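User: Hey, my collaborator sent me this sequence without any context and asked if I could get a structure. I don't really work with proteins. Can you help?
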Amino acid sequence: MNLEEKKISGEIIYNGKILTLIKDKVLCPNGNTSFREVVLHNGGAAILCITKDNLVYLVKQFRYPYNEVMFEIPAGKLELNENPYDAALREFEEETGNKAKRLIDLGCIYPSCGYTSEKIYLFLANDFTISKQNLDSDETLEVVLMPLDKVEEMVLNGEIKDSKAICALYRYNLLKKNGKI
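Assistant: No problem. I've predicted the 3D structure and written it out in structure-token form, which is a compact way to encode the shape of the chain:
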């Protein structure tokens, strides 16, 4: 069964600093036409860091769209054409003040495939040295070290809502269970 839609025409509605909003007219597989509004985004890189003592690095920060303070794993947006691995190294050091010696790839997720092109690349850091935190000028966050079992409990009870943290933890646990890390 053919499920693909074909773009007929499109226009840029908004072109901002971190995203572009487009509106495309598409031909649906059933022959009808429709419109698709899409947020174009360079993507991001996120780092799950678990220490040798099973402590997880989280960041706590206010998220304006939700009007709440959230627990997340360290992460940041990719610059145009930036390598996700390099972005993850940069963001981990900027946000936590730690320099990862290497990262383990935990895969890529599509956080909201219905309306955005954003991809988030997930990594695991478990070998690092202490460096210096270097937050962006518009960034305020608190670094929190928490036991892995407490983080998993917070995911289960809805205290951690950050999809990249939840997915990274899930993939980490699957890889560990299957002896791949």
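In plain terms: Helices lie at 84-96, 148-156, 163-177. You can pass these tokens on to your collaborator as they are.
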